Amino acid sequence: MKFKMKKCKECGEYTLKEVCPRCNKKAGVIFPARYSPQDKYGKYRRILKKQQLEKQYTANRLSYP
Ligand SMILES: [Zn+2]
What we know:
The structure is a single chain. The relative contact order is 0.12. It contains 1 helix and 3 strands; from the N terminus they run E-E-E-H. The protein has 65 residues and is α+β, with helices and mostly antiparallel strands.
């Protein structure tokens, strides 16, 4: 089973329909995060990964005083 999940840009409601059931605005398709045809967001992904690693590092330091 595969649904084309959509998300309303106005209220954040998830729906399978074209239009948001809550506010009747057009809902947009959610694309898989890892799908990137030109990898033009690779730079941002690396920054995010770095931030995550730094957060983990900080969390580990906090848990081992
Ligand atoms: Zn909505």
